[in-house]
Specification:
By secondary structure, this protein is mainly alpha-helical. It is built from 10 helices and no strands. The chain has helices at about 5-20, 30-35, 40-45, 50-65, 65-70, 80-100, 110-125, 125-150, 160-180, 185-200. The chain is elongated and about 65 Å long. Mean pLDDT is about 90; it is low at about 205-210.
């Protein structure tokens, strides 16, 4: 295993621990056992436990949550196509994390994620700020897709794009929170909610009136 692979292996093992336990409940011994690495190797690749926590959160909660990585296609045929690929990206993220937590009988990614984000905001204001910047960039992407949909007459031209973009994002976060109380984000329901909002934006068909 080369240097980069060992570092990624360490990050994945540490992420598994930090995702399912509070930071203070994770010891260096826990990380040694989970990663199957010596304390010296952990110190070499990550420094202290706190620095490892910072780097793991940056890698998984900030860098990998940038929308340009979550949505693989750089172009979209329509706003509806963007919505579907957005939901696909959410599902892919959950699947990847569930893969990291594959040994657990129940994988409630939403609950773990919300808890970890709250920890991030407490320990690392800089990463929390980066996380919020990603959300602002995501809002900008939604606005851009809505404006394009207006130009192509896919949706009505009287749509308040900023408000509607926020509605789409709120659907995601609201669904994530509600589903975190049970089994984790239901992307079928997420797709349904977003598609229903999309339908409300469509131009109304005018009835043919005979004179």
């Amino acid at each position: 295993m080369n240097k980069n692979n060992r570092k990624e292996h360490l990050y994945k093992a540490a992420f598994r621990l930090f995702l399912t336990k509070q930071y203070d409940s994770v010891s260096i011994s826990d990380i040694e056992k989970e990663a199957n690495m010596t304390r010296g190797a952990i110190t070499y690749y990550a420094g202290s436990k706190l620095n490892l926590f910072h780097e793991v959160l940056k890698y998984y909660l900030v860098d990998k949550q940038d929308l340009k990585y979550k949505i693989t296609s750089p172009t979209f045929k329509s706003l509806l196509d963007f919505i579907n690929k957005y939901v696909d990206g959410c599902q892919r993220t959950m699947t990847n994390i569930c893969g990291i937590l594959s040994e657990m009988p129940v994988c409630n990614v939403s609950r773990y994620y919300i808890s970890l984000i709250l920890e991030m905001s407490s320990y690392f204001p800089d990463l929390h700020e980066n996380y919020l910047e990603n959300r602002n960039k995501e809002l900008g992407i939604w606005i851009s897709q809505l404006n394009r949909a207006i130009e192509t007459k896919e949706i009505r031209n009287d749509v308040d794009v900023v408000s509607v973009a926020r509605h789409f994002i709120c659907i995601f976060y609201g669904q994530s929170y509600l589903d975190s109380l049970s089994m984790g984000l239901n992307t079928v329901e997420l797709r349904s909610q977003m598609t229903n909002l999309y339908k409300l934006l469509k131009p109304q068909k005018e009835d043919n009136v005979q004179t």
